[in-house]
Amino acid sequence: MKREQWGSRAGFILAAVGSAIGLGNIWRFPYMAYENGGGAFFIPYLFAMLTAGIPFMIMEFGMGQKYKGSAPRVFARLNKKYEWLGWFQISIVAIIGIYYVAVIGWAISYFSMSFSQTWGADTNAYFFSDYLQLGGDNSPSKLGSIQWHIAVPIIIAWTITFVAIFTGIKGGIERATKIMMPLLFLMVIALIARMVFLPGALDGLNYLFQPDFSKIADPKVWSAAYGQIFFTLSVGFSIMLAYSSYLPDDSDINNNAFMTVLINCGFSIVAGILIFSILGYMAHEQAKPLTDVVSSGVGLAFVTIPAAINLLPAPYILGPIFFFALVIAGLSSHLSIVEAATSAFIDKLNWSRKKAALIVCGTGLVASMAFATNGGLLLLDLVDYFINNIALLSSCIIELVIMGWIIKLSDIHKHVNNLSEFTVGNWFEACIRYLSPAFLIVILGTNIYNTITEGYGGYTHSDLLTLGWGVIAAMLVLAIIINKTSNSDNLTKEA
């Protein structure tokens, strides 16, 4: 079966950028910069982008384009015994796809509420008590009942993803991202154009960009910069391998990788300008210091921003624009997440795209109902922590070790340079072999040590053991079993 291809270079770039730009750019990056030295954080961040983000992206674009397959196929073609890493990455992407869609569902709900600010004056109580229906007896293992006002938007998000995946690379995903990404950029620019002129907005930007150079000597800041680069770029967990496998044989790999990483990181900074303009205005209106209104994660998007929207002039216009941008950022990433899993089943089982899309999206929809329950937020928080801070970083390190030390990295290096308008030098191999693994090992080691000694989020040891460590162990065992028991012929033959 001939492998599908992107219709244009712009279509591929927009899809790759759409995957990389997600909710994390909007709610995670601004807070990370604020916490880690403001303007000074951009020095380690740009260093991490050049020494980790761009080399890793070049490597994965080159691997996907050269070996023409999903993650299991790529690693099976390197050596059949590495196929398990591909399936481990597919399990990571599958779990992220199942819980990430819940946050998109919340954003869809809040988009509909933003026309009339249904969340009221106490946005904190509304989000946790009225909307999520989170009770005192809920825990990640005591979920309660399905909340249909959350389940329905999740079903809507899955339906949009399914239609794009079902329709194919050129007709579905490429067409969707060609609409979504320009729209996202336009909405964010429109919001910034209004927000920066509000009273207090410039104070907010000063908080974000004021450099605290003393932080540069702190190893935690460098770890945060590298962690953010890997968190935001969608590398190391099968997505970019799948997307680049649909590239034509003469694609300019180096150029594509540089453009994808630079646009993504540029958007993160632009999102920071938007968020801190809003927070500066909010602090001004409430006569509070900015440190009292700043927050991270879901609290920023669904508690702090709605409270800020209440204070805005024309909230019924600016509120919907913000939450529609959030929905689009989430959906463009979700498309890539589900495509990575779908392409693996197409490669492995020779399923048609339509059959694979139906089974993957249908199974994902049923599983994601766990996050539409009373305790869904707690389950999401715990699973997300272990997947992003343990499983994903482990996957990146193993991939770097295989490519940098076991497989001949120079083959990929030559391959990408032969295809590209400009070549990358020895810094590429030095980053893949030494710099990136060293930083990631330190970050992962710190995360594991802190999780073992301090736990996470006040959750019980039994929840951490079963829903955290247990899930990662199950993913690893399943990946190894698939590798050991399956015939890799479908994966190693030409697409």
Describe this structure in words.
The protein has 495 residues and is mainly alpha-helical. It has helices at residues 9-20, 23-27, 29-35, 42-67, 71-78, 83-113, 123-131, 148-167, 169-195, 201-209, 219-233, 239-244, 253-286, 297-311, 315-349, 353-368, 376-406, 409-419, 427-454, 461-485, 489-492. The longest helix is centred in the last third of the chain and has 35 residues, at 315-349. The termini are close together.
Summary keywords:
mainly alpha, 495 residues, globular, 21 helices
Radius of gyration: 22 Å
> Could you tell me the mean pLDDT?
93
Shape: globular
> How would you describe the oligomerization state of the chains in this entry?
single chain
How are the secondary structure elements laid out?
Layout: H1 9-20, H2 23-27, H3 29-35, H4 42-67, H5 71-78, H6 83-113, H7 123-131, H8 148-167, H9 169-195, H10 201-209, H11 219-233, H12 239-244, H13 253-286, H14 297-311, H15 315-349, H16 353-368, H17 376-406, H18 409-419, H19 427-454, H20 461-485, H21 489-492
Helix pairs in contact: 1-9, 1-13, 1-15, 3-13, 4-11, 4-13, 4-18, 4-19, 5-6, 6-8, 6-15, 6-16, 6-17, 6-20, 7-14, 8-9, 8-15, 8-16, 9-13, 9-15, 10-13, 11-19, 13-14, 15-16, 17-19, 17-20
